Amino acid sequence: MAVENRYSSAVSGGGGEIYHLPEGCIANVLSLTNPRDTCRLSVVATIFRSAAESDAVWDLFLPPDYRDIICRSSDGPDSIVFSSKKELYMYLCDHPFFIDGGTKSFSLEKRSGKKCYMLAARSLSIVWADTPRYWRWISLPESRFSEVAELLDVCWFDISSKINTSMLSPDTDYAAYFVFTTKSRTYGFDHQSAEGAVGISGNERKTQTVFLDPEAARRHMYQIVPMRLGLLNRMADMLRREANPLPSESEAHARYPQQRSDGWIEVELGQFFVKRGQDAELEMSLTEVKGGNWKSGLVVEGIEIRPKEG
Amino acid sequence: MASSSSSSKTGLKKMLTLKSSDGDEFELEESIVIQCQTIKHMVEDGFSLIPLQNVDTKTLTKIIEYMKKHAEKTESNKEEIKNFNKEFVKGSFDDQFELVSAANYLHINGLMDLLCQSIADRINNKSVRAVREIFNISNDYTPDEEEKVRDEHKWAHEGGEFDESLD
């Protein structure tokens, strides 16, 4: 991105101070930082701001294949048109849009520009989902998708999905999150953990313990606190554990539900590092098939895949 | 271009002279110097003494060091070049800006990329105040304007500590 100045046109000064650098050089440096640094550093001085607005910078922050993704928009590519690359970038961060016939929504993570997807419940493989006695498809105003899956009653709770790693940003730590909400008559998950797993299809995938009951997080805290107290408390704790047996190691590494800003609840299923040039099916799953008890009352929005924070 | 290929055929190395803004002259092989697009154009226009009124001796010496090393680049010495690059970008910000300015003027793309990446790595996660000091620039916003620019991207100023160090 060298700035146009053929040898005939001498640059005045040429000293070391930044004001002698053409704006294009500053834009070049900013394009090698990240969107967050670029936006923050536009406060440094007016020359930084004008460099930080340039299309050359934001073109590099957008994913290289952003045009292809916009072409897959369910509303057509003409629904996403902006006069500057920066406006487009900000829009893609703040307005997830549907692709592939409304089965996924796509957005960018604002700080880094990495790709994020939400796979709609309809695009997931949910065992028994077509049997109205076990699952039912409903519309909810708070959902971004036209349909969500409501769990009526199952013993065999088994949800999985796949995404090709080439659709994700390279050299990035991703995590997959199960996005759901609970109804007042939710049962079967209060003392029963589920198994989350994320990994390449066909390879052995590491599983992690996942709690779907939002109350489980509070109980988990409560169990840890009395450890240092007296014998009576320790015994009470042991009794509680006996009544509610859980392998303590997996419990320590277990994932608990978190409230999201959009009103839904999420829990991490697992993490995965996407290598550059990798072209493989990434499989995500959430199962509870060991307890054998009946479970009910979850509403499934989908599975979100986004970069790990930090 | 045509002249350089014919001179290598005859085994004669065509020499060029670069003259810094301080008046110092450096004689170099044409094959080394044509990494620089601006000089390449001048060679094509028939120049053999090339005055560089925007590049002082100190900066030109560094740039020649870079061009000489990179002219030796082959498939087998990638690691050596990598280490050279790493050493080359060590030094004060002032020196680096001077080099960026010269690399931009001379159109040496490889050097531009190397320097910009190095500066970008060094200002990564830095605070606004630290970057002002590092770049030695005064804030030319009015307080109102600055507040407005800050408000435009509140999210970029939130969440976590920024690096206040000046190195």
Automatic annotation (TrEMBL), chain A:
This is F-box domain-containing protein. PANTHER family: F-BOX DOMAIN-CONTAINING PROTEIN, F-BOX PROTEIN PP2-B10-LIKE. InterPro entries: F-box-like_dom_sf, F-box_dom, PP2-like. Residues 19-58 form the F-box domain.
UniProtKB/TrEMBL annotation, chain B:
Pathway: Protein modification; protein ubiquitination. It comes from the Eukaryota. Residues 110-156 form the SKP1 component dimerisation domain. Keywords: Ubl conjugation pathway. GO terms for biological process: jasmonic acid mediated signaling pathway; protein ubiquitination; ubiquitin-dependent protein catabolic process. It comes from Anisodus tanguticus. This is SKP1-like protein. SUPFAM superfamilies: POZ domain (SSF54695), Skp1 dimerisation domain-like (SSF81382). The keyword Amino-acid biosynthesis does not apply. Belongs to the SKP1 family. Residues 147-160 have a biased composition (Basic and acidic residues). Residues 143-167 are annotated as: Disordered. Part of a SCF (SKP1-cullin-F-box) protein ligase complex. InterPro entries: SKP1, SKP1-like, SKP1-like_dim_sf, SKP1/BTB/POZ_sf, Skp1_comp_dimer, Skp1_comp_POZ. It holds the Pfam family Skp1. Residues 14-71 form the SKP1 component POZ domain. Involved in ubiquitination and subsequent proteasomal degradation of target proteins. Together with CUL1, RBX1 and a F-box protein, it forms a SCF E3 ubiquitin ligase complex. The functional specificity of this complex depends on the type of F-box protein. In the SCF complex, it serves as an adapter that links the F-box protein to CUL1.
